[in-house]
Design a protein that fits this description.
alpha/beta; globular; about 550 residues; seven-stranded mixed beta sheet; eight-stranded mixed beta sheet
Length: about 550
Amino acid sequence: MALGLDRGEKAAQDAQQAFLQQLKRTFASLPREIPLLLFVQRGKEDVFVDACRQVVRAFRGLTDKITLKEYNLDHELAAKHNVDSSPTLLIDPDHYNIRWLGAPMGEEGRSFLEAMLLVGNGKADLGEQSLKVLDHLDGPRLVKIFVSPTCPYCPQQVVNGLKAAIQKPELVSLEIIDIQCRPDLADQYGAQSVPQAYANDVLIGQGAQQEEVFLSSLVKLAPQTIFIPESTEKVVHTDVVIVGGGPAGLTAGIYTERSGLRTAVIERDALGGQVALTPIVENYPGFTQVGGKTLVDIMVSHALQYVQIFQGEEVLDVKPGDPIEVTTTRRKFFTRTLLLATGANHRHLGVPGEQQFSGRGVSYCATCDGPLFKGRKVIMVGGGNSAVTEALYLKHMGVDVTLVHRRDRLRAQDVLANQLPAAGISIMYDTEIKAIEGREKVQRVRLINSKSGKSSDLAVDGVFIAIGYEPAVALARKIGVELNEEGYIKHDAFHRTNIPGIYSAGDVEGGYKQIVTATGQGAAAAMTIFEDLINPYWKMAEAS
């Protein structure tokens, strides 16, 4: 076992070195310098100042294209650029209006890398449709994007803002705001769930958005939920279309491509599904413990070696037939088979105040939003593995957390549940949330004991909800795929649905909600698709 771990570590080190060498070559090919100005309050330096210097120093070790000059907040340049907080990092201020309030740590290191490459190229690298949308911009936009170093969705939204600021520097200014460094601004804007994007102090995006949707929101100064191309996109002909970029979909894509089938994976949101939001994954084969986002990065990197992934596209319509026609927000696919790996979404409590305070104290992602609640009191609603894992994660971050469960015992595995007392996490059994209340943000919850019937109020700053998932079957229902009595996709032992050529895999099928189960189902569905395309069972049935 030790030898296996050593080999794994060496492989990881080799991969890291290869990645760094590739970065060096990429930076060397950039046509422009990347000047950075860092403003700090000397004498009052903190972890964010140190982290900012370390991140920039690490990147400067890769290239001499990046230059850094540091100034005190009382310097005349601070007044010239309207800088009044420490640390503030300006990126190529002679050409762009881009600033970082805080430090590009954690997940935001990816955002910073994108910023360096985009500025070094001097090009926004926007798609054709995005350029058409941005051409309609009719006035200045000051964009504020609130982020957290632990949020896997934030870099996607930051890159959207960067591209807009680089494409239209005369109209678009961008501030990337770390909620840990600037909790005052997060409170001011009610940004208690990240990423959140504002333009001219108007909320234009909550959560990561696809590029065209973000730019449409920016132009219209109102949050948009869908983007429909103005003209027909390219048509893609393929053997397999997989809807969903979670573990099941990514695994299926690897297996179908390796079987010689042309495959496209379509994912509306961030790749990895719920795994990307899981703080720690335990006992996935090969890993005793691994961060959810780290595991997703490994899966995606592997899948990209084989399959083409279309991220940020939503499937609008599917017309079964031969071939099957799949219409997304960007293009059309004509495919011989379709695999639905759409997963499951967070289940909501459905109580008064839940929707009203979503992003203002109500959260479904401890990984994304937990840092803002350090030193504050929250409740975690749920009794399964996810709820217990996220409660422990919050506690270890310095959050005062209480677990609230409607039953008299937890459903979580004992190995997890037994960690709660040791961590000092109290549990309120037989308790349900009846309402979430507050003014601008969450201030209290109304509780009821299901056995005694006694109601009470509890003052809290946040409500984290982990009560399971609802299968994402809207698309399946729309195209006539049968569902079982629990609302999941009905399928046979080979992952075939009632419609010839359409298959399912992963959490959308119900059953065990385990990553390893989803990957196994994805592989099995892929092998069924390969065999069926050789000998289509529906044609055999017609012939008989």
